[in-house]
Amino acid sequence: MRNPRNFTKPLAIGAPAPLPEIPFKPSRMIHFLDFSNEKMVAKVPDIAPTVDILLGNLEDAVPVDKKLAARDGLVRVGREIELGATQLWTRVNSLESPSVLDDLTTIVREIGHRLDVVMVPKVEGPWDIHYVDRLLAQLEAKAGLERPILVHAILETALGVANVEEIATASPRMQGMSLGPADLAASRRMKTTRVGGGHPGYRVIDDPAQAAEPDAAGPRATAQQDPWHYTIARMVDACAAAGILPFYGPYGDIRDVEGCETQFRAAYLLGCVGAWSLHPVQIEIAKRVFSPDPDEVAFAKRVLEAIPDGRGVHMIDGKMQDDATWKQCQVIVSLAQLLAERDEQLKAAYGF
Ligand code: GLV
Ligand code: MG
After folding, report:
1. Among residues 169, 232, 255, 297, which one has the fewest Cβ atoms lying within 10 Å of its Cβ?
2. pLDDT value at 240 more than 80
3. Which is the closest atom of ligand 1 to the Cα of 250?
4. Which residue, of 290, 308, 332, is where some domain finishes?
5. How confident is the model at residue 6 (pLDDT cuts 50, 70, 90)?
6. Into how many domains does the chain fold?
């Protein structure tokens, strides 16, 4: 049990107080970069205005002999490059790794004032968040920070999924969560070598024809299913219940832009606010998918205008509208408003 009153108090003397609400800024894509690569660092001024969140990756996909350079590169980006409204995040190494303590101490000391969120991989339960929570408070106090750094957990172990609600509510520092389909597949012993997306073996099929010769009826209709549906839906519920933000994670097949768009859209419809982009082509996909469709925004605006007090039953274009659909329309319009503030093209498309 935790005393709820302590949620408003810092966990170390001199650390900034926890935030009462998680700020919701445009978060359509978390763009992953490895700053051990000098060329990547040089490109940051051009990339930053095109993404909502820029993440300096220190964990998987960064070779062991480049880990230090990736951390140094992130520090350089945080110190030297103006990012405008784009958020700066990092993914630190996992909590059992030999690098994570130095990741956290260095980053908070050097660029804590620039960093919005620390993504923590392979979170298994609230104890992992409690550890990071206290450590960050101590480091923030030491660095004299005035605003708390938030924490984002990757949901990528079977135990993490089993504990998802407790992770979401473990600390007021919890900003959100992402699905990590690669590590999660391994942890569950799912038989797929893909990073996110469907699989031709995971499908449904029509019943066989009842005729004397079933084959004469032609092939049975069949379709792939989404093996991530259950976990995304669970994560969305845990996050929404805790007032934090759910994200779909990586889509590994960079060339399969249609598969990526389909996976992102399923996550968007279920309630995710964004996804990871691993390549510039996925930035555009995320921007398209996680910005509400202008036609839907126009319809939602009409509903809000037609029902100014949000009460009672109304018919619009033959569709029943009431207090609940009014709230659905609020979700769409408030997201559109938030994104329009950052994006002139969307502003025009939404007519704000
Ligand atoms: C991401 O970290 C994943 O494991 O999919
Ligand atoms: Mg992973």
Report:
1. 255
2. yes
3. 5
4. 290
5. confident
6. 2
Q: Taking the CB of residue 52, how many other CB atoms lie within 10 A of it?
A: 24
182 lines ligand 1 (CB under 6 A): yes
- 306-323 tens-digit pLDDT: 998 888 888 999 999 999
Would you place residue 214 in the very low, low, confident or very high pLDDT band (cuts 50, 70, 90)?
low
Q: Which of 264, 290, 316 is the last residue of a domain?
A: 290
Helices (H), the chain: 38-47, 67-80, 100-111, 126-143, 158-162, 164-168, 181-188, 229-242, 257-270, 280-290, 294-306, 323-340, 344-350
Q: What kind and span of H or E run contains 155?
A: strand 150-155
* Cβ of 183 less than 6 Å from ligand 1: yes
* 26-47: pLDDT as tens digits: 999 999 999 999 999 999 999 9
For residue 74, CA distances in Å to 179, 305, 329 come to: 23, 46, 39
Assess whether 279 and 315 both reside in one domain.
no
